[in-house]
Every structure is written in structure tokens, then in C-alpha cells.
Design a protein that fits this description.
The protein contains 5 helices and no strands. By secondary structure, the chain is an all-alpha fold. The protein is globular and about 60 Å long. The model has no long low-confidence stretch (mean pLDDT about 90).
């Protein structure tokens, strides 16, 4: 007889899904950066592309780990969302206000989903 984990709570699934979307967007940005390399900024394009590829890849790994009940993945996701809130703050004003709002809302939704009591309980290492 195998023990089955109970299904993940909705806030945790929503948070993991949004983190996966963020990861895919970061990977897409990395690809765009590497595809649009010009001869006068090769080093910047390669390092930027590599950074965002690693960042997006790690977020994708963490999103998957969270859905499988691995509590270790919560910390990197929370850190990434706090960084995203800082980026959103720097984008406020003028033409980038909508981008700032989108980044802040996404980060807050992920944080709320990860820190919801049902999510904390689902990721708890304690046995009932």
C-alpha cells in the first residue's frame, strides 16, 4: 500500500504556476538577449543572457519542487519575489508604470500563495 500525498492547496498551486510563468518569461528574455547580440556589446549580452537563463531555470526548478511538497524551494521563491518588488518599485512612474504594477501584483500574489496557512501546512515537514 502506498501513501498518497493530499492534493496541493489552491494558493500553493496558484503561486507555483505564477512562478513558472515568471521563469518562462525570464528564459525568453535570456534567449532574446542572446539572439540580439551586436558586435559592440557581446560580453554584456552573453553575461546578461546567461544570468537570466540561470535565474529562470532555477525558478522553474523551485516551482516544480514546491508542487511536489519540497519546503526548501519556498525560500528562493520568496527571495525572488522580494527582489521583484524592488524592481517594480524602480519601474514606477512615466512609461513603465504598468510594468511596475504587473511585477508588484505578481510578486504579491506569489507571496500570498506561499504564505497562506494552507500552503504552509502542505509544505510542513511535521507529521500529523
Amino acid at each position: 500500500m502506498t501513501l498518497r500525498r493530499p492534493p496541493n492547496p489552491a494558493p500553493l498551486v496558484a503561486a507555483a504556476s505564477l512562478v513558472a510563468v515568471e521563469a518562462v518569461l525570464l528564459l525568453g528574455y535570456a534567449v532574446l538577449e542572446l539572439v540580439n547580440v551586436s558586435s559592440d556589446r557581446v560580453a554584456v549580452a552573453v553575461t546578461t543572457g546567461a544570468f537570466f537563463a540561470v535565474y529562470g531555470g532555477l525558478l522553474l526548478v523551485c516551482a516544480r519542487a514546491i508542487t511536489r511538497g519540497h519546503s526548501w524551494a519556498r525560500s528562493p521563491i520568496v527571495l525572488a519575489q522580494l527582489i521583484q518588488l524592488g524592481v517594480a518599485w524602480s519601474f514606477r512612474g512615466a512609461d513603465t508604470t504598468l510594468v511596475a504594477i504587473a511585477l508588484a501584483v505578481a510578486a504579491l500574489v506569489v507571496l500570498a500563495g506561499l504564505l497562506a496557512p494552507s500552503s504552509i501546512e502542505a509544505l510542513s515537514d511535521e507529521e500529523d
